[in-house]
Amino acid sequence: MRNIGTLWKKELNMFFVSPIAYVVLTIFLLLAGFFFNSIVVRVVEFSIQEMIQAQQFGGPPPERDLTQDIFRAFFGVLSTVILFLMPMLTMGVFAEEKRRGTMELLMTSPVTHWQIILGKFLASVTFFALMLIPTLIHGLFVYLYSEPRLIWKPVLSGYLGIFLLGTVLISMGIFISSLTENQIIAAVITFTLFIILWVIDFAAQGTGLVSEILRYMSVLTHYEDFSKGVIDTKSLIFYGSLILLGLFLTSSSIESMRWRE
After folding, report:
1. Residue 106: closest CA among 116, 120, 96
2. Where do the H-state alpha helices sit in 101-218?
3. Which of 132, 138, 136 is nearest to 40 (CA)?
4. Cα–Cα distance, 92 to 107 (Å, whole number)
């Protein structure tokens, strides 16, 4: 555990001196702020239109939980944003080590390849969690100015879903980074994989056995329950399995380097 903690601190420090990490963080927060503001404006305008229409027809306005509508749409946007940004965050995890020739030093140091993988993986996940924390300001804003007050349980469930989705993408991204020493190639392949995951979600919108299989395989479909405030055990197992799969594939890739040497 001490070796993993040491590697985690080292890799986390690397993020804080990396211009790419700051670019990813800045783009993420700017997009999150922009889309949150746009969603709030759209939901409020739609609510006002419904009230006007209800008054015209002499009936009561439809009952809606506007705060939950806002955050459900917001989490849907965030899930798409991280699909596009995670490749930039993970592309250099192993590729940069290979390019600089420091991967050989790590492999010959008194640490196991699993300790190396977990140290880098946990550092990436920690940085991603730090990216999400500032967006809680949006929840605080809605809580202070909404009536009735914002219910935090569905919001925190949505954040758990975003965190698990991002962790899955990180595990897949570091696996692809372990296959090459070129960060650009790693980013392109990772981005292509994430696009495939995104397309699977659209392909699963139909009916039939194939659609059911694709719907189960879609990381975004499982995320929808979290965004609705539902923590489904099946989704937790699904995300956990994908995270372990990504780490196992990374382990196999790193272990193959020992054999090649």
Report:
1. 116
2. 103-108, 113-132, 136-145, 152-177, 183-203, 209-217
3. 138
4. 17
Give per-residue pLDDT as tens, 220-230: 777 777 877 78
Predicted TM-score of the model (pTM): 0.88
What residue numbers bound the domain in which 193 lies? 2-260
Instruction: Summarize pLDDT for 2-29 with one digit per residue, the tens.
Output: 778 888 888 888 888 888 888 999 999 9
Write out pLDDT tens, residues 196-213.
877 776 665 666 666 667
- The Cα–Cα gap between 117 and 110 comes to 14
Asked if the model's pLDDT at residue 113 lies above 70, the reply is yes
Q: How many domains does the chain have?
A: 1
Residue 257: how many other CB atoms lie within 10 Å: 15
Asked whether 4 and 115 are in contact (CB, 8 A), the reply is: yes
pLDDT at 54 > cutoff 70 = no
- Residue 148, preceding peptide bond in cis (omega within 30° of 0): yes
Comparing CA positions, the residue from 221, 226, 65, 222 lying closest to residue 155 is: 226
